[in-house]
C-alpha cells in the first residue's frame, strides 16, 4: 500500500497541511502535493475504472500523460469531469470523486465486462451491432449509452471567467526543464524578446529528481540560479502553469494557462488561452516514459518507474513497501536506488537485457539490490492491487521461474521524446534505433510564412538522452532561435553537466517475447480504452495495415490521453504482426491540443452577454422597456411585436397591422443599410450593380432596385435615392448593409478600378423611422418643419429639412401600400425623434408596429422580401419583376447568367398569390403537388409557399408562393399536403399576389 | 492561422482580420461570352498543390482587397500585391521562381 | 433642437485600466486622392493638422486626422461643428473626385487609460500592440473580439477606441471585462 514517507518531498511545504475530499472521505495532504500524490499518501492507489471493461485503475504516471487517474473535481458551477489527478495541484477544500463506476469505485457492476473481455475483442462494436437492426435500437444502444463516457457532464453554469490573450514574441520556448532554461539563456543572450513557459508550477523538470549535476552544482541550485538570472532580464518573460497546447501555421502557438485552478473563486480568470505569434518556437517538451507490455501491467500498483521515483523524491510518497523494478534500460535503476535509499525494499530489478554492467547497475548492486538479467515479468499477480510478480526468461514463453511477493511494480520501457508540438504543423520524425523512439528530424521542420523552419526542438525532446547532450542541444536551439529572428548568436558555451555513463537499452515490445495468447490478452497497451496486445494483433490479422485504421478499429490511443503511453508500444506490436519495420508503419497524426484544455478557455470571454455582438438601434432601449418581443435579424435585434398586457403575440400583430392601415403606425427601420455612392461614374457603376437603370434617376427622386450576383440570382433589393448629380444613396436590406457594401467595394477595387466612384457605409449615422398610415402626413405636419404635402413631396421623392426641430431627410416610399414616409434623423437624436412621434401621434391613433407587422403589410401588397421570396436560387424574373430588369442596358451583374437555358426555361416556378379555399393559413414552406401520381407512384412537386400570414385586414390567410407555370394558372386550385400524418391536403387558389388595395388608392393621397 | 501583409497599409494582418475571396485573376465574362466561358468564369477554379494566387480583403483593417501568391502545401507566402493587376506582376513571378524553380509559371 | 445623446451617455468603468465612453465627437469620413495636393491641402486647412502618413493620427486642438485606408481619412472635430465642417470641406473639394460624409452619429467612442492598457487590448485583438509595434500617434484598425474597431494612441497609457454605434454596448462590456481587476497579465 502506498503511504507518506517520513522524509523526502522536495516540493512539499510540510508546515502547511491541506484537507481535501475523495469520494466523500476526508483526507490530508500538504501544500505542494498534486492530487495524485496526496491520494497515494492516503493509501489510495486505485483512482478509477477503465472505459470499456471497467477494470480497476491506479495512477500510472506523475504528469500530463496520465491515462487512468481521471477524476471529477469541484462541485456545482465549478464541477469538471475527467481531470487528471497528476496535474491537479492540491488546495485546501478540494473535492474530488472517481468516475466510470456504479455503484462504487471498489465494487463496480460494469466490471462484468472484464470477465467477458474475450468476447469483446477489437472491433467488437462494429461486429456485433450490425444485426439484427432492431436490437440496436432497443437493446444495445440503451445499454451502451448508460455505460459510455467517463465522467458526468457538468449540470450547472460554469462559475468561472475565462479569457484570451494575444501575444507577440520573438522566441517562444515551451517547457521549463533544464533544456528550456538553457535554451532561454542562449536565446536571451541574442538580445531578442523571449517567453519561456512551463506547464507545471515548478521550474526544472526531472533533473533534480534524477540527481543531475550542472555547472558543478546540484541541478536544483543551477535551476534556481538560472531562473533568477532570466527573471532579471528585461527581454525575458517567464511563466509557470502554462502549457504549450498547439503549434499552427505561420508561427501561431496556443498556450493554456491555468491561473486559478488551485485558487478557485479568487476573482482571477480560471484559465487563459494565449494565442501567441512567435518568430521562432523552441519545444523543450521533454520525454515520456513508455510502459512495458506484460500480462497484468494494468493492475493498480504497476506504475512507470520514473513516476515511482517522482512520488518518492518530489512528494515523499512511497507507492509500495516492496517494489519490483522491471526495465529494458538504465534509467529505471535510479528508481530502484531511490527506493532503497528511502529505506524501502526492492526485491529485484528485472532487466530484459542479457547482461548489465553499467555504473548505475553497479551502484544498485552495491546497495544490495538483486538484478535478474535477461528476465521479464510473466505476469503480475493481484486484482485491485499488486500482490506479486511471476518472473520468467525474457527469451521464453512465460513459464514462471519464480514468484516474488511485492506491492508495487515500477516499469520502464524506455523514453519517447514529446514530439507533439513539433509534429502539429508538419514537423517530420525519424526512427532512432538506439533508443527505440521517434525523434524530430531537424532537416524536416515545420515551415513558416517565408518557407523558413520555425520550430526547433531542445533537449530530450530532440532525442538527446544524457544531461550533457540535453544542455548542449538546448543551448544550441536557443541560439538557432535567436538567430532566426534576427538576434545575435551568443559566443558563450552551453552549461556543462557531469557525464553519465549509461548502457544501451534493448528494444522490448512484449514481455516475455514469446508470450502466448493467455498472457497477451491480459497485456494492456492502452489503459484507459482497454486495448491489449491481442487486440492489435487481431486487427492486423483482419487486414488493418494502416496505423490510422488500426487506431480507429481498436480505439488504441483514442482516449483522453491520446495514446501518450500506448502509441509507440502499439505500433511496435502492429509492425511485428505485419512483419514490417516500425518506421514503415509510422505514427498516427499528432493533433492539438497536447493535453485536453477546458472548453471555457476555448470560449474565452464569448459567453453570456459577450457571446456575440448584438447590434442595437438608437431606439433599442425603448423597445425593450416596452416589453417588445425582440427577434434576431442578422446580428440586430428588432422588435417583432409590442404586445400589450394580456395580449398574445398573434393578437398584438393583428392589432398593429389593422391600426397601421386604419390610423397610424410607427416602425423602427434604422437597420436598413444606407450606402453613399459618389463620383462622376456613380451612375454607370450603379447600372452595373442593379438590374434596373439607375443613371437616369433624377436628383430628388427614388427608385426601387434589384441586385443580382454574377450567377444571376437575386441577392438584395432596396430604394435608391439620387442626392445630386454625383451622389446616390442606396438602401439595402437589414442583413445586406455590410455584405452589399463589401460587394460594391469588391467590384470597384478589383474590376472597375479606373472608374471614379467612392462609397461610404452610413447605415448607422441615421435612425430611420417609418411613419405609416392614413394619418402619417398629419403627424409630420404637426411636428412641423418641412412641407410634406402631396405636391411638395410626391411618392418616390425625398427631401431634406427639419421635423420637430431635428434635421431630417424624408423619403416618401412605402413598403405597405399606405401613405408612408421614412424619416432619417441623426442617430444620436433618434430616440428623441421617436419619442416626439409617439407623443404627437397619440391623437392620430399612433401605435408602433414590429417586424411581423411589417411582413404582413408587405405580403398584403404582394411585395417580395429578400430571404423569403428569394433563397439564392431565385432570379428576379421568377418573381415577376421583369419591370425592374433593364432591357436597354448592355450589361449588369448577372445579366449574362440570366440568359442561360435553365434561367429562361418556361418551366421555372413563378411567383403567385395563394388564397386558401377555407381561409386558413398555409404552413410557411409547404410544397404544392401536382394532381395524380407520377411513374414512381409519388406526387410530383410543383411549387412551394414562400410567405404565409394571417391578414387581420382581410381576415383570412394569405400566401405567396413559387408555382410551376404559376402565372398561367390564375384561378386554378393547387394542393399542399400537410405533414401531420393524416394525408390531408390544404387547397389554395392561385391568385394575383396583391391582396389588398390593388389599385393603390391608399398610397396615392 | 495565416499572417498576410496587406500591401496597402503594411499591416501584418492576422487571418482573423482578413476575409478570403477565392482565386485571383479571374477574367469577367459578361454579355457576349459563350456558355463555356461563362461556366468557367463562374465555376471553374484551380485547386493546385503548390503555387496559388488568391484574393483577400483586409476587412477588419483598411478594407482593401489584395492578392496573395501562396503555396497551398507549405503555406509559404511568396508575395502580397495590389488587387488592381489583371495578371501577376513580374516581380511576383520572379519571387516565386526563386523559391520554386520547378514551378511551371502562371497560366 | 433636441439634445443629441451618445450611445452610452458617458458610461465609465474602473478596472486595472479606466474606461470611459468618450461622449459626442464630430467625425467626418473623407475619401479622395491623397496624391492630389488640393486634397491634402483642403484637409489640412480645415483641421490645422499635418496630413497623416500610413496608419498615423495627426492632432491639432479639437481636430485630428486619422489614416483609415489609402484613400480614406477620418477627421475628428467638435461634435457641434461636424456638419458645418463637413459642408465646408465638401465645398473646398467641389469639382474634385472626393466623398465627404458626416458620420459623427454612426460611431461609439471610448477612452481607455492606464499603465496596463496594452494588457487590456492584448486580450481582445490579434494585432501587435506591444511598445515596439504600437506607439503614440498610430492608428490600428482591427477587431476587438468580434467587433471591428479602430484604436489610436494619444500618448503612452492613453488610447481612444472607435466602433460602430450599434455595437457600442457590446464594446463597453467587452472592454470592462478585459479590464477586470485580477485579470492583469503581469508581464
CATH architecture of the domain at 166-288 and 417-484 in chain A: 3-Layer(bba) Sandwich
> Helical percent range of chain B?
10-25%
| Beta-strand residue percentage of chain B | 25-35%
User: Could you give a short account of the major beta sheet of chain B?
Assistant: 4 strands, antiparallel
Number of domains of chain B: 1
Number of strands of chain A: 51
> Which quaternary structure do these chains form?
heterotrimer
Distance between the termini of chain A: 96 Å
CATH topology of the domain at 166-288 and 417-484 in chain A: FAD/NAD(P)-binding domain
- Overall mean pLDDT of chain A stands at 95
CATH superfamily of the domain at 166-288 and 417-484 in chain A: FAD/NAD(P)-binding domain
The CATH homologous superfamily of chain B is termed Folate-binding superfamily
Report strand % of chain A.
Answer: 25-35%
What is the CATH class name of chain B? Alpha Beta
What shape does the CA trace of chain A take? elongated
CATH architecture of chain B: 2-Layer Sandwich
Task: Describe the protein in words.
The complex is a heterotrimer of chains A (1005), B (107) and C (187). With 1005 residues, chain A is of the alpha+beta class. Chain A is built from 25 helices and 51 strands. The mean pLDDT of chain A is 95. In chain A, 23% of the residues lie in helices and 28% in strands. Chain A is elongated, with a radius of gyration of 38 Å. Chain B has 107 residues and is of the alpha+beta class. Helix content of chain B is 18%, strand content 29%. Chain B has helices spanning 35-43, 90-99; strands at 3-5, 12-14, 19-23, 51-57, 65-71, 77-82. In chain B, the strands form two sheets. Chain B has a four-stranded antiparallel β-sheet with strand order 3-4-5-6. In chain B, strands 1-2 form a two-stranded antiparallel ribbon. In chain B, a hairpin with a 6-residue loop joins strand 1 (3-5) and strand 2 (12-14). The mean pLDDT of chain B is 96. Chain C is α+β, with helices and mostly antiparallel strands. Chain C has two domains: 12-23 and 106-178, Gyrase A, domain 2 (2-Layer Sandwich); 26-102, 2-Layer Sandwich (Alpha-Beta Plaits). Chain C contains four helices and eleven strands, in the order βββαβββαββαβββα. In chain C, the strands form two sheets. Chain C has a six-stranded antiparallel β-sheet, covered by helices on one side. The longest helix of chain C has 11 residues, at 37-47. Chain C starts with 11 loop residues before the first strand and ends in a 9-residue tail after the last helix. The mean pLDDT of chain C is 97. The chains are: A alpha+beta (1005), B alpha+beta (107), C alpha+beta (187). Chains A and C meet through strand 9, strand 40 and helix 24 of A and strand 7 and helix 4 of C.
